[in-house]
Inverse folding.
């Protein structure tokens, strides 16, 4: 089966860090741009970051630039999102999604979606 499975979410205090993982199975992640998308309660889904399949170029939303880092390990068929200096407004369900080969900053580009992992930033 084609699957994307997120992990690493949880509860963290403001200023803390989390690393999210997105493990792909049933397809080769190498050929796709991989994005991280989040959805806060009552809000639309928001593209957070994306990494391309070819040159590895990255995209970050202005709200997370300088705090989050996206990376990929093709040998493990896994993409990561390292999050530092977390803020309460970072709270939401984080999804990884695949569709490429490059990042368009458009959610409709994604063909595959994971089920999401909850990130809660609160004191």
């Amino acid at each position: 089966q084609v699957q994307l499975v997120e992990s690493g979410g949880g509860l963290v205090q403001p200023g803390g860090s989390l690393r999210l993982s997105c493990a792909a199975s049933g397809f080769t992640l190498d050929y796709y741009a991989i994005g991280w998308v989040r959805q806060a309660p009552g809000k639309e889904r928001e593209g957070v970051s994306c990494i391309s399949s070819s040159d590895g170029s990255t995209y970050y939303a202005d709200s997370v630039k300088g705090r989050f880092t996206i990376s990929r390990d093709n040998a493990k068929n896994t993409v990561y999102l390292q999050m530092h200096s977390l803020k309460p407004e970072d709270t939401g369900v984080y999804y990884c999604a695949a569709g490429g080969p490059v990042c368009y900053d458009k959610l409709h580009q994604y063909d595959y979606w994971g089920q999401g992992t909850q990130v809660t930033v609160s004191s």
